[in-house]
Model the fold of this input.
Amino acid sequence: MRAIRSINNNIAVCIDSTGAECIAMGKGIGYGKMPREIELSSVSHTYYSVDERQLEGVKDIPQDVLAFAAAAADRARGQLSYQMSPNLTFTLADHIAFAIKRAEQHIRVRMPLAYDVEQNYPDEYRLGRQLVRRIRREFKVGLHDDEAIGIAMSFVNARVGAATEEELAAAQRDEDMLEDITEIVENHFGVSVDRTSFAFSRYATHLHYLFARIHGGKALPAEGLNGYQGIGEQFPEGVKCVEKIATHIGEAWGAEPTDEEKLYLVIHVSRICIKGADR
Done:
C-alpha cells in the first residue's frame, strides 16, 4: 500500500494494490516523507469513500479516542442489520471526544428525545448504553447515561439505505432551512461559508438535531446551561445573528429555539465563521 498524504502521525490517505484511494489507520503510518510504501501489517483499519470534510476534524481528535471509535464502529456494523456509512468512525469519534470534554467540564446536556430514541431504535440505544459504560472505563470520565442517545443517533444517521418519499420531503425541508440559516450567517458577518469544511459538517449536524427536536415539540429546556445571557458580552455579533436565526425558524415553523439551544448555536456559528469561511 502506498501512502500519499498524511492526516496525522497515525492516519494517511493511501492507494491500495488496485489503485483505489482509501483512508488507512495504523501506528506511525502517517509519519515521514510522502509518498512512501507501507507494510499492510502496520495498517489496522482502511476506509473507502470517506467524506473529505471528516478528515479535517480528525487532526484534533486524540488517537486513543479515534482508535476506540474505530473499534466501536466495527462492533456496530457486526450487530446492526443495515449497511453503514464509511464516515461512521470519524463522526462517532468526534461525538465521543466532545462528550468526554463535556464530562470533564461537568457539563450535562439534556436529551429530550431520549424516550423516542429508546422506543424507535432499541438496538442502537442498547449499543449506545454499552458504549457509555466502555467510555467510562476506558477514559475514566463520569459520562452521563443520556450520552447514549447521541451515540445511538450517530448509528441511525450513518445508516445507508433507501428513503420513503415522505422521508425525502422531510429531509429536503430541513436542508432548505439549513441553507436559509447559513445565508443569514453569511449576510450578517459578510463572509462566504465553506460548506465543504469539517466545521460546517459539525454545525450542520447540530442544526439537524435541533430541527428534530423542534419537529418533535421537544426543544432543549433552558435550565440545563445558564450561559446565553452572559455570552452576549463575549460574542455580541454572534448573539445578534442567532436571534435572527431564531426569528426565522419561529416564522417558518412556529417554534423558536430555547436559550440553551441559542447558546450552542452561537458556538457553532462562531466556528464556521472562524474555521469555515473565506473572508
Observations:
- The mean pLDDT is 85.
- The chain has eleven helices and seven strands.
